[in-house]
Amino acid sequence: MKAIAVQPGAGVPEIVERPVPEPAPGEALVRICRVGVDGTDYEVIEGSHGGVPAGDDRLVLGHEAVGVVEDANGTGLEEGQYVVPTVRRPPAGVETNDYFERGEPDMAPEGEYVERGIVGAHGFMAEYITSPADCLVPIPAELAAWGFLVEPISITEKALEHAYATRSAFDWQPESALVLGNGSLGLLTVAMFTETLGYERVYCLGRRDRPDPSIDIIERLGATYIDSRETPLAEIPDAYEPMDLVYEATGYAKHAFESVDALAPNGVAALLGVPGDWSFEIDGGRLHRELVLHNKAIVGSVNSNRGHFEAAIDTLAALPEGVLEAIVTGVYGLEEVDLAFPKATASVPAGHGATAAPNDDTPIKTAVEFTDI
Amino acid sequence: MKAIAVQPGAGVPEIVERPVPEPAPGEALVRICRVGVDGTDYEVIEGSHGGVPAGDDRLVLGHEAVGVVEDANGTGLEEGQYVVPTVRRPPAGVETNDYFERGEPDMAPEGEYVERGIVGAHGFMAEYITSPADCLVPIPAELAAWGFLVEPISITEKALEHAYATRSAFDWQPESALVLGNGSLGLLTVAMFTETLGYERVYCLGRRDRPDPSIDIIERLGATYIDSRETPLAEIPDAYEPMDLVYEATGYAKHAFESVDALAPNGVAALLGVPGDWSFEIDGGRLHRELVLHNKAIVGSVNSNRGHFEAAIDTLAALPEGVLEAIVTGVYGLEEVDLAFPKATASVPAGHGATAAPNDDTPIKTAVEFTDI
User: Fold this and answer.
1) Do B171 and A104 touch (CB under 8 A)?
2) What are phi and psi of B235, to 5 degrees?
3) What is the per-residue pLDDT for A352?
4) What's this model's pTM, rounded to 2 decimal places?
5) Domains present along chain B, CATH in parentheses
6) Do B282 and A285 make contact, defined as CB atoms within 8 angstroms?
7) pLDDT tens string for chain B (373 positions)?
8) Which of A146, A154, A198, A275 has the maximum number of C-beta atoms within 10 A of its C-beta?
9) What whole-number distance in Å separates Cα of residue A216 and Cα of residue A333?
């Protein structure tokens, strides 16, 4: 079968031949339909993140997938059922551990998991995969075409579950939310705030000039685009309003700290970016005082578990199809796989500057299609 | 009647004559027994925090009190009942607001409250006070002698309630806790971790040489004293272990950020200090990444509400009396009030250096006694 793999650091993915995998007991064989491409894939391609499984020189990419059960293998799944695979698995040679036993692999620390398509385990960009049945989340056929968005939405489901948890000791009624970053995850999150979470006022910070398709999506959702070059994060409370919730999806480390200033009293900042080392000066006294005197919280969040995937499928069903169509700018077959990785050969600014996307026609969200849905 | 008041910035409190207050409808008249002295009182005395009520030139001090109902005034309280008053009240001229209506004045932002004995309202260091009955929390007579510790314990009850809330979206089973600061609040919190919260391993960071009574208390509780001059906060995970919970009670702003490094995966840092402005460099990229990849949280917490006072009374009942006796180094009548404010005339290091207490015989916790219990 064909798969899309990468030698970490090679800069571009390649199509490779691999044997169709055999499901072990408890596993099903899944025929892959579509697999999304995201920033983590580029980090793996560039070699700045992730790693190949022991004994292999290439990693099969892909962690945002939807497929169809080809051989249920006695697992109780139904053949023909569309499914979305979760990403984390126990480390090689380990059957399970406390985190997986509890259904919370997203809370496992480094060393206690591998991530399919990212680190230590092959991903989903292949014609077939096998997976333990309990890592395959059924999705209705009518949503299957968008099923590769379930994993990124699940990331936000988890981050917001944790952000809300931080505010659960009192009566919190958030009305304003600010999303930092207008990439595909930021845009999906803006859509969740406006369409499913009932926020009255939603803002999205980016660094793009108009006209720009991501700004169009933000405004179509009734949200407000803020250009960080005109209004830096810390000035947003004065220029717009203090925010009950800040969702950071830029990987720009100063945002983690400036978010404290952007928050309203009793607000929470959810951090999702994974920046490299970067030292800079902050007014730590003021930020510390502000966190305390206004009961603010910061919560970091990574990955997601099966419950978040299930919530994400409900969310996906509630998002307007027109918005999904605008966010997904291209789904490409193997014969034009280069189009699915438009940044793979370009020189991408690494590290801090994740919001400094150039003002061009860079697609927002792409996917690879292995089988028609 | 006699009261202890201060002209903010005067550097020392003074005994003043005030009329015995008359309870308004819904208020009770309380005869004050004991009032604790804490760091906030010194900030008010120095003039770095707080403020007098409009129309007055002095503020009656005191926010950690226990008294006895002298005139229930038809409120439903019983005369002779010991009570602890809560601290926040609606601003002058305002009957109530959403925060008070919900029983969550501790979540009110600046401008939506006054604090008795701290900012905008006279405190409890007087022979008599009046208070709305619902701001008077009954305490059993056998605990009344320690009742002035209920307010500081309630501060920790709230901070820990919020810290636990941040970890409520998953199965969190904390075993290790680190308290930053070995002042009276830090010591009470160490006692809560070891005596009522079931932590297996508790540490307390300070800057004092042995022999020192606060170190004795820490060790008597089965906790481990860590000298920050030998083991800075960020090195504690290697030297001891990463911490599930860090509780900051130093007001030392670097601690707010270094706590992230001291935390175990999925840990939470509760911040309580109120530092002044202070700019310094951090590796913000690493801290941001660490928060995200290990699902860590930071939560600021200020003040407490009636529910936290009630929880604090239960906690107080569970703490060993010997520990309370060791923490409370002196209870003084008005005739020796100077002894209750041992730092009031000394030159106190302001701002960042709150942990840099000199290695001397400075009392740990003092109180003023107005009436025998």
Assistant:
1) yes
2) -95, -5
3) 39
4) 0.95
5) 2-152+303-369 (3.90.180.10), 153-300 (3.40.50.720)
6) no
7) 999 999 977 889 999 999 999 999 999 999 999 999 999 999 999 988 889 999 999 999 999 999 999 999 999 999 999 999 999 999 999 999 999 999 999 999 999 999 999 999 999 999 999 999 999 999 999 999 999 999 999 999 999 999 999 999 999 999 999 999 999 999 999 999 999 999 999 999 999 999 999 999 999 999 999 999 999 999 999 999 999 999 999 999 999 999 999 999 999 999 999 999 999 999 999 999 999 999 999 999 999 999 999 999 999 999 999 999 999 999 999 999 999 999 886 444 444 334 434 444 668 999 999 999 8
8) A154
9) 27
Tell me how far the alpha carbon of residue B307 is from its chain's centroid: 15
Q: Is residue B53 classed exposed, middle or buried when 0-12, 13-18 and 19+ CB atoms within 10 A define those classes?
A: middle
According to the model, what pLDDT value does residue B11 have?
87
| Residue to substitute from B170, B233, B255, B352, interface A, most A β-carbons within 10 A | B170
- Asked if B291 and A300 come within 8 Å (Cβ–Cβ), the reply is yes
The per-residue pLDDT for B345 is 67
DSSP classification of residue A352: G
Cis peptide before B85 (omega within 30 of 0): no
pLDDT of residue A361: 61
pLDDT in tens, B274-302: 999 999 999 999 999 999 999 999 999 99
What residue has token string 């059960």? A69
Averaged confidence pLDDT in chain B: 94
For the stretch A298-340, pLDDT in tens is: 999 999 999 999 999 999 999 999 999 999 999 999 999 999 9
List, as one string, the DSSP characters of A24-39. Answer: PTTEEEEEEEEEEE-H
Kindly report, residue by residue over A247-283, the tens digit of the pLDDT.
999 999 999 999 999 999 999 999 999 999 999 999 9
Nearest in space to A203 (alpha carbons), one of A180, A232, A230, A185: A180
- Nearest by CB to residue B257, choosing from A110, A284, A297, is A284
Nearest-CB residue to A165 (from B165, B289, B293): B165
Quickly list DSSP for A229-292.
TTS-GGGHHHHT--EEEEEE-S--HHHHHHHHHHEEEEEEEEE-------EEEEEHHHHHHHHH
φ, ψ for residue A243, nearest 5 deg: -105, 135
| Cα–Cα distance measured from residue A153 to residue A167, given in angstroms and rounded to the nearest whole number | 21
Residue B35 Cα distances to B42, B125, B303, B351, B365, angstroms: 14, 6, 17, 25, 11
User: A28 φ, ψ to 5°?
Assistant: -110, 155
What pLDDT does B354 receive?
A: 40
B205-211: which pairs have CB atoms within 8 A and are 24 or more residues apart?
Answer: B205/B178, B205/B179, B205/B180, B205/B181, B205/B233, B205/B236, B205/B250, B205/B355, B206/B181, B206/B182, B206/B355, B206/B357, B207/B355, B207/B356, B207/B357, B208/B182, B208/B357, B208/B359, B209/B359
- Lateral strand order in the sheet of A14-17: A14-17, A2-6, A59-60
Residues 333-352 of B with CB under 8 A from A: 351-352
What the block records as the tokens of A238 is: 């004065």
Q: Whose CA is closest to B184, among B141, B139, B137, B152?
A: B152
Closest-CA distance, A32 to chain B, in angstroms, reads: 28
Query: Which residues are CB-neighbours of A45 under 8 A, at least 6 positions away?
Result: A6, A8, A10, A11, A12, A13, A61, A341, A344
- Residue with the two structure tokens 């042995």: B210
ipTM of the complex: 0.95
**Residue A345 pLDDT exceeds 80:** no
Q: List, for residues B160-202, the tens digit of each pLDDT value.
A: 999 999 999 999 999 999 999 999 999 999 999 999 999 999 9
